[in-house]
Structure formats: C-alpha cells, structure tokens
C-alpha cells in the first residue's frame, strides 16, 4: 500500500499502521471470514465441524445451506422464500451481487433441470488435456491396467518431478465428479516424493481415459431416494 497523496513517507524505520485490513493483506481473508461467520451465526446458522466454510440452518421443515469460498457464496435450500430472505439479510450486512442460479463454481459445471442436477468438470479437464498436449491422444476405455506393477525405483527418474506432482494434484480435484478414477489417482499419489517414468506414463494413461469420457459427470436425479451406500474392507468392519 502507498501512503495517500500529501502524506510524507515515515522517516527512519517507522511504518504506518492501518486501522483496518485491506484486500490482499494476509490478514484480510481471516478478518472477512470472521465477519461473515458472525453474520451467519446471528441468523441462526451452525458451522460444520468437517468443513468450516459450510454453514447450515435446519428448521422444522426446511433447510438452508451456505458454502463460502472467500467472498463467493453458494446458497442452497428447499424453500425459495427462505433463500430470498437470506439474500436480503446478507444484502443488508454487505454489498452483494446476485448472480442468479448456479452454473459454474470452482471448476465444477452445474446443469439443472426439473428432473436432475448434472455436475461435471469438462472445462477444467479440457484445460488439463490442453496443457499436457493430450487432446488428440489415443483413447482408453479404462483408467489403469488391472494388474499394474507400479513400484518405486523400478524405472528411470523423470527430469521434472513437479510435472508429475502437479498432474496428480489436478487429477485428485477431478475425482469430485469422476469418482471412478479415485483408485488410480490414489495409487499414483504414493509416488509423489520420487516419481519415475512408469508413474508418469500411468498418469498419461488416466488422461487417455478421461479424454474418452470428457462429458461424463455425476447425475443427481430428482426421482432417486438419494440413499448413500458405502462399502469397506472387512479389516475395517
């Protein structure tokens, strides 16, 4: 920050002290989030213990959910009047801009109809494929060989380990809407400290599969009972 015009710079080693945080300071996000947290809790919201950027409000019949990413908020609820009331409340607390129905958030595209909500990361994935020159690659119908033999130190090291590390990190984020690659990506994440050529080749194989399923995603149907079924190994039973 530069001092206002007409204000002479301080002499010696003294500095100016700000009365409040401004954008881009390291304290700014914390100060903003504390302010948002206070406003939502005054409204009756509870902060999730699993994700402190998620706030929920459950009434006798209806529910409201607020997801915060810095100063971008997603409002979800099963009653439009409650949502409009919350938007009005937030507008009284802060200057806000209502962007309407959710279409894109943090790399996730949202397509909504009366019958379903479809989530995918087509734009995000396309960026990965373009960055790795894999848009015109040979396609694959599966993300990883069934009987792979990926081990540490069994192939030559790669010149730039950060290339592999960045790829695996981006693939991990893709598992939000591509859960079928979770096992493959988790396998590759075991070799982040010392990636070898075989590991990078396996990562490229995942991209070949993803190129063949570019438009795939998660479909949330309004006709399903939305029952979550989980499986675990008997060792964890």
Automatic annotation (TrEMBL):
<dbReference type="InterPro" id="IPR013103">
    <property type="entry name" value="RVT_2"/>
</dbReference>
<feature type="domain" description="Reverse transcriptase Ty1/copia-type">
    <location>
        <begin position="3"/>
        <end position="145"/>
    </location>
</feature>
<protein>
    <submittedName>
        <fullName>Uncharacterized protein LOC109114514</fullName>
    </submittedName>
</protein>
<dbReference type="Pfam" id="PF07727">
    <property type="entry name" value="RVT_2"/>
</dbReference>
<dbReference type="InterPro" id="IPR043502">
    <property type="entry name" value="DNA/RNA_pol_sf"/>
</dbReference>
